[in-house]
Amino acid sequence: MEVRPHRKINRKKTREIKVGKVPVGGGSKISVQSMTNTLTTDIKATINQIHLMEEAGADIVRVSCPDVESTKSLKDIIKGVNVPIVADIHFHYKRAIEAAKNGASCLRINPGNIGAKDRILEVVKAAKDNNCSIRIGINAGSLDKDLLEKYKEPCPEALVESAKYNIKLLEDNDFFNFKISVKSSDIFLTVKAYKKLSEICDYPLHLGVTEAGGLLTGSIKSAIGIGQLLMNGIGDTIRVSLSSDPVDEIKAGYEILKSLGIRSRGVNIISCPSCARQAFPVIETVKELEKKLAHITTPLNLSIIGCVVNGPGEAALTDIGLTGGGQDSNLLYLSGMPHTKVPSSKIIDRVVELVEEKIKEKN
Question: Whose CA is closest to 207, among 188, 227, 177, 178?
Fold first, then answer.
């Protein structure tokens, strides 16, 4: 069952590129990605972290390559994981060439920061020779001095002008296998820049509010910024940038997509904030259910409502629903229809049991 399918998002059709085996843009699903925070030279730790991200649903993972030892490590890291790896490169054109030769599926660079045109041509050649795509990564915190002098401060126009300049550098070298991002830590700046960029090009866009903050604040900022753009049909891949475990970024990314009905993974719990009408401890119940159902990847909608005011209505729209009732007599719904009553002490075990049964049916 789908939850409130009242509005279909008309997504802008962009070109499709490939990041390894993952298509980005065109009619492909919006991919979710994150970035490792281990030392890339610590191959074992980096592979272990990527495995955790894969389990959480990461489609693409980015790895920082600040030095030659890091690009050398890429070869072993890529052998040990299943997701395509993006090499994060700044300034050092040789690192980009090394990363492409060592198996990176994509290079995150600013071509304008690479240096002379012959260096850009070398990077493009390495990308072509190794079937490697590129992400043009424009960031408000690292704009060219000329643009800052022209616009006095980071602004949407400056980000888009930087993007246009870098796009031309690649196009002039007959390279079109790329996506673009124009990120800022400011939500308004980010949203306006992406909207302007979307109007003037059809390359796939990588969305994100950069340096968004900690788990709570960063997730909220990202949801507002990324969510606005997705609702306007803009965006082909997303990264939620948090000062937290990279796995949290993946989870937050899926929650954003799930909340907009774009892409679902795992159990979507619809629950009330609880009040004096609740017939069972809603908050504690939801926390426990989140833990016990965290391993599930198949999409399923579950409503947990503490009383009969909104419970039946929510249950009618979900695969499984629970409505609090008087006298320790809570009502379970299956596929929107009343199913059976359950005492408060048995709620968690019974709901988990029904969810697992429903997942088996779906699979």
Answer: 227
Using an 8 Å Cβ cutoff, are 361 and 296 in contact? no
Instruction: Supply the CATH classification number for the domain 267-362.
Output: 3.30.413.10
Cα dihedral across residues 86, 84, 228, 259: positive or negative = negative
Per-residue model confidence as pLDDT tens digits over 231-282: 999 999 999 999 999 999 999 999 999 999 899 899 999 999 999 999 999 9
Does 184 or 4 have the greater pLDDT score? 184
CATH, domain 17-259, list 3.40.228.10, 3.20.20.100, 3.20.20.20, 3.40.50.720: 3.20.20.20
Predicted TM-score (pTM) of the model is 0.92
Any residues with CB less than 8 A from the CB of 294 and at least 6 apart, and which? Answer: 266
DSSP 210: T
What is the domain partition of the chain in residue ranges? 17-259, 267-362
Can you name the residues that pair with 88 across neighbouring β-strands?
A: 64, 108
